[in-house]
Write a structure and sequence with these properties.
The complex is a heterodimer of chains A (99) and B (231). Chain A is mainly α. Chain A has helices spanning 3-25, 33-38, 42-56, 61-76, 81-96. Chain A has 5 helices and no strands. In chain B, helix 1 runs parallel beside helix 3 and helix 5 crosses helix 7. Classes of the chains: A mainly alpha (99), B mainly alpha (231). At the A-B interface, helix 1, helix 2, helix 3, helix 4 and helix 5 of A face helix 1, helix 2, helix 3, helix 4 and helix 5 of B. Chain A: The chain crosses the membrane at residues 47-73, 80-97.
């Protein structure tokens, strides 16, 4: 097996272990109370960090405006296609503006 | 014979899960296309690229691994980067552990395969209920996402080279994340977690891939927990 394939599938196996350890190996009731207290905040914290991380390496005004538009549209429509369409339109419109 | 005596066929597919996942698939399809396009010219080959996609079941770490291999990184570096990027899955696992606690062993091991941002966000937004109903919902959610995700890879392999360059596909996935985030912002602690998490991720962006996300997420979780205690 080549080093490339070993690295690729090694990462895949590591990913599975991260997923399964708290779902099947360590029982939920053994989690410390402080961890259980923090769990409801995992979703918003991670989603916000992922969103910012996705644009932070190549930040642009168009990307920031697109994500703001996506947020505003997401408040109004529960369908996730709506914020995505809004963001695409904003980036396309920004591309049409003279620089 | 009365129709009431005829048992209803067991419903194996949760239609709510398909309905909720469909727009998510639309959002992540461009990302899947991008990875398919990357695999089409990658030295590991199409079979290994697509095979690993099914296990990664997520784009960020898979794409990072593919790019690091092209750049000459060895297996330890690739695996370390993947662990850093996907460390958030531990948090998701911890958050969903109570839903999995009453499930059969096979489901806890097999269901873990489909734990990712989108399945976590949709499943955690539902109230806890009957374990069998959750199992059906989770399996439908994961299968729908997996099939759509891999289909995106295949389309990327085949059609990627002819997609117009002006299509801003890169913004689609972050926009879907925003759509998943907004429902969490109705509570004060949710807003604190998101704002601090976002600022933390931006501040830590210069760190290696994935580390900034973990730094931001942990900062947001700690801040929201402190605010939750004091309010």
């Amino acid at each position: 097996m080549s080093a490339a394939v070993l690295g690729l599938f090694g990462g895949a196996v590591a990913t599975y272990l991260l997923r399964v350890v708290l779902l099947a190996v360590v029982p939920a009731e053994r989690l410390p109370a402080r961890v259980r207290e923090a769990l409801p905040h995992v979703g918003p914290a991670v989603l916000a960090a992922l969103t910012v991380g996705a644009v932070a390496h190549a930040p642009s005004v168009a990307a920031v405006l697109a994500l703001l538009a996506a947020g505003l549209v997401a408040r109004r429509f529960r369908n996730l296609a709506a914020p995505m369409a809004a963001a695409l339109l904003v980036v396309l419109a920004a591309g049409l503006l003279p620089t | 014979m009365s129709s009431t005596l005829i048992p209803r066929p067991h419903r194996r597919i949760d239609r709510d899960a398909v309905r909720e996942m469909a727009p998510v698939l639309l959002g992540i399809t461009p990302f899947g296309l991008l990875i398919g396009l990357t695999i089409s010219t990658h030295p590991v080959g199409v079979a290994a690229g697509l095979g690993s996609a099914a296990v990664y079941y997520g784009g960020t770490a898979h794409l990072a691994a593919l790019q690091m291999i092209v750049a000459g990184a060895g297996p330890p570096a690739v695996i370390a980067a993947v662990v850093a990027i996907n460390a958030r899955l531990l948090l998701y696992g911890a958050a969903l552990a109570p839903r999995f606690a009453d499930q059969p062993r096979w489901f806890r091991w097999a269901g873990a395969v489909t734990l990712i941002d989108q399945t976590y966000a949709l499943a955690s937004a539902r109230p806890a209920g009957d374990p069998a109903a959750f199992r059906r919902y989770w399996l439908t959610l994961g299968t729908t996402l997996g099939l759509g995700w891999l289909a995106g890879h295949v389309v990327g392999l085949v059609a990627g080279p002819v997609l117009p360059a002006w299509l801003p596909l890169g913004i689609a996935a972050p926009a879907v994340l925003v759509g998943l985030l907004v429902p969490h912002l109705t509570r004060r602690t949710g807003r604190v977690a998101a704002v601090v998490g976002g600022i933390g991720a931006a501040a830590a962006a210069p760190l290696p891939a994935g580390v900034g996300t973990i730094v931001g997420a942990v900062a947001g979780i700690v801040a929201a927990t402190v605010v939750g205690r004091t309010s």
